[in-house]
Amino acid sequence: MRVKKKDIFFQTLENMADTIVHSADYFAQQVSDFKDVEQFAKQMKEFESKCDGYTHTIIVELNKTFITPIERDDIMNLTTKLDDVIDGLEATTSRFFMYHLSQPDEYIIQFAEMLRNSAYEIQKAIHLLSQKKLLAIREHTIRLNDLENQGDELLRICIKELFAKVSDPIELIKKKEIYERLETTTDACEHVANMLESIIMRNS
Description:
By secondary structure, the chain is mostly helical. The protein has a single domain (8-203), classed as Phosphate transport system protein phou homolog 2, domain 2 (Methane Monooxygenase Hydroxylase, Chain G, domain 1), CATH 1.20.58.220. It is 84% helix and 0% strand. It has helices at residues 8-32, 37-64, 72-98, 106-130, 134-165, 169-203. The longest helix is centred in the last third of the chain and has 35 residues, at 169-203. The two termini are 30 Å apart.
């Protein structure tokens, strides 16, 4: 029996989601102890380049494919939103390296766990999209919204703590930017959820 070849768009979106999981997993592992920040930043850059390659594949395929499994704009927007997630993780890691951050703190570790959980929700949702199980995606978009709310709350807590405890202005600026970048990356995960919601609405 011949196995039907998976649609190139769905396959590439799945590859992107899988790469997001690998990078968020790696990010969460590395953040718990900053052994080799340079290597950490290098590996995250590789994950990001891999996703750029998938984005390129989708653009090339969109330009030569007449009939797509879902609307062309939806494919492109979803690809961009997925790419934003990995860009956020990579940009945060490069800040660890540039700012010579030697010690992670509990807030960075909590954000990393949140982002790891979000990555798994994205992966499950994208695999369901491939199977056209649209309504089943909802439970994952709800969880992504919830994780983003937790990210908002965590940002409020850690910024308040930062201003209460850190008096060195340089240290304060570095930490504040890192916390905000992490929270922006949880926003990027929610943007994936919102995009999936509009795909559900249009196709169910």
